[in-house]
Every structure is written in C-alpha cells, then in structure tokens.
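Let us work through a complete example step by step.
Step 1: write down the sequence.
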Amino acid sequence: MMIDLFFATSVNVYKVMIALEEMDLDYRILLIDISKGEQLDPTNVAGSPTGKLPVIRDHDPADGGEPQLVFESGAILQYLAEKTGRFLPAAARARMEAIQWLYWQVGGLGPISGQAWHFHAFAPRIAPDFDNSYAFSRYHNMMSKFWRVLDNELAKKPFIAGEYSVADMACYPWVIYYPAQEGMEAYPNIMRWRDKIAVRPAVQRCYRRASEQQTGYEFNKEKQVAYYDWEGVRRTMITV
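Step 2: predict the structure and record it as tokens.
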C-alpha cells in the first residue's frame, strides 16, 4: 500500500519527496492547484486543517488502522523516518541531534528564507509604492545568520547531524532554492555539503519527478497572486 503526497511546486514539498525517495517508499502524487486555492479546502487534502502543503496520507500506518494523515513538513519527515527506521539515529543523543536540526530548519531557516524571498520577489509588485527596505534588510540579514550557523556546523562534520539524516533533507531544498545575499562562495562548507547531496540518486529522482508534474496553474501574472490567504493580499487570488 502506498502513501499519497498532495503536491504543489513547493520547497517544503520537495523535502518530503526527497525523504520518500531516500526511504524507497511507494507513493503517488496528487496534484493540488494552488492557483485556484484548492489547498484551502480540507476535503481536497485528506482533511488537513491548515490550508498548507505538504500533506501525506499513509494507507499502511504502523497501527494497522485507518489511513494516517500527517501535515507539516517537519512532522512528515519525522513520521517517515520512524516508520522506516531510516535517516534518524536510534541512539538517544544522536537522534536528538538530528531532531534539533530538523526543528531548526522548520522553525528558522525555512520561514526566514521564505520571508526574505517573498519581500524580494513580491513586495515590489504587490505594494510598489510602499517602502519595503526595512523588511527586506531584516529578513535577508536574519537569513544570513542562519547560513553562518549552518556553515560553521558543517565545518565540523560531513552532514548536519553527523550522518546523513532528515535534517539534511529538510535544509537542502531551501539552500538551493534561495541562496544568502552574500552568494554561495561565502559559505564553502555549505557548498561542499550541497554538492554531496545533489548527486544522491534519490535527490535527483525527486527533482526529476517534480519537474515532470503538469500542475496547470493559472496565475494572473500582472497581479502576482498570493498562494495563501494570510499575506494580506487575498484579493489578488484568482477565482475560476
């Protein structure tokens, strides 16, 4: 029995896809059209209440019961690691090391990088007459701090928690998606780590499979629609 992955072209979805590929799990992709706000209706995403992707539905949960719904990318990665017994160490201290860095990504590197990218890509279009320089500077400086922490950690070991783990799967898609403002060359240890992960067959399968999805998104390119409804610009969402 397989796992359903509710899919949109999203960095956080790619994190889960990498894990599914690395763990050799059978899964199918269920496309969600975020340009139509389909993710905001729980009936479209197995009952997930958050209006966010990724979401998975496991048809073969460990307890043998009804399909298991899991939302939030960090929770999904931990769930899959525990399900398979892979990429999350069994030893207590090593396990906590990996979990700490997983939470560091979902609570810090990801959200701050997302805000930095948002103000860079969307603020000039959504609010062209508004001075966004403070927000732009704030989030890019915070993002650089996260990159420095990661680079310092990777100076000591080949992967974030020592051995390759869900912590690396969580961080890698964000690092390749939106680099820090200083550029990759300022972070040699991240570059070395990035290149080592990029050649992993499971990672390559993830991005290849993601690129093959025909999402059919229909966006109003002039308004640069917001994908979710908490941006304060919900009025720009297309309704079809």
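Step 3: interpret the result. The two ends are 35 Å apart (CA to CA).
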